[in-house]
TrEMBL record:
PANTHER family: PTHR13593, SI:DKEY-266F7.9. It comes from Pelagibaculum spongiae. GO terms for molecular function: phosphoric diester hydrolase activity. One of its GO terms (biological process) is lipid metabolic process. This is Phosphatidylinositol diacylglycerol-lyase.
Length: 299
């Protein structure tokens, strides 16, 4: 976001919920060793994803014995992996001025309690309060060393430093590998009902395993991601957003401009972030939507 503050007109005055940012779906599944074909959605570490430009992370945690593990469905990592990966990730984020949004998905409140005991003291001073998340500019957050927003699923609702995920996001998930159905779902999320004005939009382009019919049903998530029609869903969303953005810049009516701008904002969440050149370019294209619709920008 440092480059955006310098080069993207108007970016500094926006709130986190007003910008476009790349996200990763099931961000820590690279640590899973069982049923990898259907449980692994990412190949890069949390730290690597962050350094590539991902700013929204979907991290799922549950208690196992005395520690926490990453999980996806019924598959989980080992305790050592989760502890070391989170430590490395938080260390990197805390050494930067980059703002990140963490969706922390716990299986129950006991797992949340354990996360709070093990990690919250390290990041507490850098967390963004719910009120600041909804109202203050990115420039203010960075200037005041507030760069970690926590959206929690299966915690205790809204607290001094955490927001409830369900109550503060919208967009939904298509849960399909049918490219037309998924495109229809994510395009429908562009239009913000009045009650969603202060919420974070999360556009989920990820396509699940074991759905549909025929042999494609058993393709792994990563194999399916290699198919051109799979990537075209994300590319199409980016291209449509760019067209809307360019039209917005030409509008003179303030109300119409605000309505168009609301169609552009939000997280674009992907599988296999940075898995190859094509996915890296998609990530950069998402970031570039903050540069007034230009083609992708390499910092």
């Amino acid at each position: 976001m440092q480059q955006l503050l310098i080069h993207a007109p108007g970016f500094a005055s926006k709130r986190l919920i007003d910008i476009v940012m790349p996200g990763s779906h099931d961000s820590a599944t690279y640590t899973l060793n069982s049923m990898k074909s259907f449980s692994v959605t990412q190949t890069k570490t949390l730290r690597e994803q962050f350094l590539m430009g991902v700013r929204y992370f979907d991290i799922r945690l549950k208690q196992k014995g005395e520690g926490l593990v990453f999980f996806h469905g019924i598959i989980s990592s080992d305790v050592r992996s989760a502890s070391s990966e989170l430590a490395s990730f938080f260390s990197t984020v805390l050494l930067s001025n980059e703002v990140v949004i963490l969706k922390l998905h716990f299986d129950n409140t006991s797992s949340y309690d354990l996360f709070e005991r093990n990690f919250m003291s390290d990041i507490l001073n850098r967390t963004i309060t719910p009120s600041d998340f909804r109202t203050l500019s990115i420039k203010w957050l960075i200037a005041n060393n507030k760069n970690i927003a926590l959206l929690v699923k299966n915690g205790y609702g809204e607290t001094e430093y955490c927001m409830d995920y369900e109550a503060n996001t919208f967009g939904g998930w298509g849960k399909t590998r049918d490219s037309q159905k998924l495109t229809s779902k994510i395009e429908s999320s562009r239009f913000d009902p009045t009650e969603n004005i202060a919420k974070l939009k999360v556009v989920q382009t990820n396509q699940p395993a074991l759905v549909g019919s025929g042999s494609d049903r058993f393709l792994s998530v990563l194999e399916h991601d290699q198919k051109p029609e799979s990537r075209q869903v994300t590319q199409g969303y980016i291209e449509t957003t760019r067209v809307i953005l360019k039209g917005t810049l030409q509008r003179q009516n303030t109300e119409e401009k605000m309505e168009s701008t609301s169609q552009i904002r939000g997280v674009v969440s992907m599988d296999n972030v940075g898995g190859d050149t094509g996915k890296t370019i998609l990530l950069l294209e998402i970031i570039a939507l903050n540069y007034k619709g230009k083609s992708y920008y390499v910092p």
